[in-house]
Fold this protein.
Amino acid sequence: MSPVLRRGRSKPQMKSPDDVMTLTEHLAELRVRLIRCALAVVLFAILIIAFYDPVLDFLLRPYENLCASRGGNYCGAITNANGEPQLFTLDPIEGFSTRLRIATYGGIILALPVIMWQIWRFVVPALHAKEKKYAIPFILSTVLLFLLGGFIAYVTLEPALQFLIAWSGEDVGQVYQVSKYVRLVTLMVAAFGIGLEFPVLLVFLQFVGVITPQQLLGFWRYSVVLIAAVAAVITPSGDPISMAALALPMLVLYFVAILIGWVAQRRRLKREAAVELS
């Protein structure tokens, strides 16, 4: 019997983007990836719930450091037994809902590598061999840039709060609701993390030939204005300190993306020249 006939019932392998999966197979694959992403988020969310008090203390640290450095009643008169500023709730279920919100957001952030890996595993069958080698660097850069953005947002939070308190007026006391404070912190982390993702998109567009490094370099003046406008729009607090802290890394990464595109372009031209000479 022919070897082909003996293997007739085996599952076909995806060898190239020209091989086509059925709609049912695509949906089944997508369902598996989504379930794995959801399980990763749930597991990390449970972990955060188990260590909720240290996590909340970590989120409050910039506010506590600001109040300790300024002294007096700078951050209001509501404090705990240790003299640290204390947040409050206006709803019996607010504390519970805030705990779930922190667990969900934290679970998504901690599960980000798993989510990006599952996205890559779902997309990789449609990529050519030369495109697949860029997948891992793109995933790593996406995760690292998001974490870098979250770190910058966290470090910037203390001076941003100082600016907001100063501009609220001398006769205005500072008593923060826990849900509103947590929302500000999470929105800041999300805005900074997403804002620092745009160089990945620029590098991708250069790799696929949509735009060239020379074009990006020629548009740098317009890009500075656009980056400043985007930072002003997506910064939740709206203070100039946070906007500058987001705009400056975005501007630096803009030129880093141009450099990466230029290096990739030079290598591609050298390979093409070598092929022509051979």
